[in-house]
Amino acid sequence: MTEVQPKMKRHAYLILAHHHFGQLRKLVELLDDPRNDIFIHVDRKAVFDPEGWKDVCRYSRLVFLENRLRVNWGGVSIMRSELALLREATSSGEYDYYHLLSGMDLPIKGQDEIHDFFDAHTGTEFLNYWKFKPTTASRFHYYTLFPEGAGHFATNLINNIFKGLQMAVGFKINRDVDFKFASQWFSITDALARYVISKEDWLEKVFRHTNTCDEIFLATLVWDSPFREKLYVKEPVEEHVVNESNMRFIDWTRGESIRHPWTFRIGDWDLLMSVPHFWARKFDDNVDNEIIEKIYGTLLKK
Length: 302
What we know:
This protein is α/β, with parallel strands linked by helices. The protein is built from nine helices and ten strands.
């Protein structure tokens, strides 16, 4: 009698990229595994040709989204590009987990360890919820004239002036939505990924004129759904506190500004190897390429 082999559990990596494509190539090589497929959205503003990437992966299917969006810091375009990645991946097959990374991230554990962990926690959702600060509510309760303008002085100034006028007269939007706040980066199950896609129209309606919604839209959707009970860590923590809720190590304590976390250097090697997380951000080959090469070389040997 032929023994039935268990079905191999497979993961989809979703990557948002906009520059540093040599560094991105190393990330892709470290994710290349028979159990993974890789989907990448490259900012439309970037000069990028996927033709040179055909032989990068030996085991994974590598997909670059053809419909590239112009992505702006703090813009609704970030939500839309994440949804585009989820649409592409869910339409390509059924994956046990969908992991969102940026092109500036790297794994700090091997694929066997990562897959073993998620196999042991099948059905669990990994989002890192934060407690609200008083100023966070202004992102979604006031109509934003230029939702793609948070990263530009002039449009951000106009947005803030218009927001102040709305505050003065007591005008608010989205009064009936129970908003929540979390890190942008996640690892979610196939069931949740498909649930998110089913809510695209609602997400667009609620968030299209908000500010910096990339840390709000998924957290809000999940909290008001049955998936809330499946969270790995259910209680929100203080904003930017390092914990294991989404298994990503991000150091905000040494960040260059409120917008950007610490960029890891070679001096952080022992720290990165000691934490329980599976991925870390961020890295920059212009700031310190040595740490990137050391992680790359170490994980390739595994």
